[in-house]
What does this fold into?
Amino acid sequence: MQTASGRKFALGCDIGATKVSLALAFSRGVIEERVVDSTRRMRKPESLVSEVSAMISSMLGRKGLSRSDCVGIGVAFAGPVSFTEGKVIYGTNIPGWDDIPLAGMLSDALSIPASIMNDANVGALGEYRHGGHGQGDLLYVTISTGIGAGLVIGGRVYEGSSKVAGEIGHTTVAENGPSCGCGKRGCLETLSSGLSIARIASERMRRETSSLIDRAGANGETVNSAMVFEEARKGDMLSSEIVESACRYLGFALAGATMLMSFSTIVLGGGMAREGEYLRKRVEFYTRKELARGPNEKVRILVSRMPERVVDIGAIELAFDAASERESHGAV
Ligand SMILES: [Zn+2]
It folds into this structure.
């Protein structure tokens, strides 16, 4: 068997509230191997570091690779992160994660240089470098359970003064709308995320006629956003109305963001990107409706062609970028 030993490689790690994935790549944009560890418990920082270390040992053992050939690990974290300081600012969905110097903890424990960035920003980096969207300023919006965004301005991920740019999910789009986990009402996330679409469908199915009832039962307990999209495609009135409403609110937020930042491209990613062209067309329709006339109308609205891989690809970029930077500064 041919051994890959001696070849330099980078690792990418995606840390979410309920899962950790680890990817390995010998070159940018090409994931060689990926493993996912899904557990239901929330991790403490120290136990997460041990777990990532064990995942790395197991992967490198299987591939016959040595840690000394690893140029670095790029980490995508589901929550606010200061990239420059290498720390988690606080854990929105993960308790016990306030002010954690995760990059340093991982570097020390793994003997591998580590860089850390918010997962939506990492996704934006992956899309910008490997999504084939050109060099213009890019807004990457991830629509899954919640809604987040990453901005690439002038070729660089933009974190903003407080390091938390991209909180598009918590912009208010409906006065007195549903309550949000952030404490406000009417946030975009409460009206257009996958979880919100499922919640709205579940509530409305109890009192309205819909083919969704055949799928999920009259009380709507098992309904999810993919079912709502599927029934909308088949012409179910209630499902279409829910999808249209979610896309209309996305249009409000995306048009506002475009008028502020004059993006050349908006890429829709996350779990909902699986809805493909149907989602893209509806979001584009409502975004264009809300855009003021002028050069910002040139903005392209696309769906990610690699929604499942983009964060891994971005995390690998992060690791290779940090290694190149260390090299250019003459560090070991
Ligand atoms: Zn909110």
